[in-house]
Design a protein that fits this description.
globular
């Protein structure tokens, strides 16, 4: 069994910062990639940022220059540093992992965490 647990969400004012964390636990043979997605109310889930096991990162154009993804491989943890937050960043943020767990290759999803940007 693999679990992804997100933390760090909440309410923040426009221009503020938050850091999301996601810890992967369970039987994990290898992590290939970790990512953050978000889903705003009434919209489709979208990719925000991703990082490969080798550390190659990609960030959506809508958050480029404001958000950064990083990881601590020793702790199976991925982070999303969010700066200069805007109202349009309000969404439920989901952690995603492509990993190998026994014969299962995922992907796996966290339960989601709310980020609300409002004055």
């Amino acid at each position: 069994q693999v679990q992804l647990v997100e933390s760090g969400g909440g309410l923040v004012r426009p221009g503020g910062s938050l850091t999301l964390s996601c810890v992967a636990s369970g039987v994990i043979d290898k992590i290939y990639a970790l990512a953050w997605y978000r889903q705003a109310q009434g919209k489709q889930r979208e990719l925000v940022a991703a990082i490969t096991t080798g550390g190659v990162t990609s960030v959506a154009d809508s958050v480029k220059g404001r958000f950064a993804i990083s990881k601590d491989s020793s702790k199976n943890t991925v982070f999303l540093q969010m700066n200069t937050l805007k109202a349009e960043d309000t969404a439920v943020y989901y952690c995603n992992a492509v990993l190998k767990s026994g014969d299962d290759g995922g992907p796996y999803w966290g339960q989601g965490i709310q980020v609300a940007v409002s004055s």
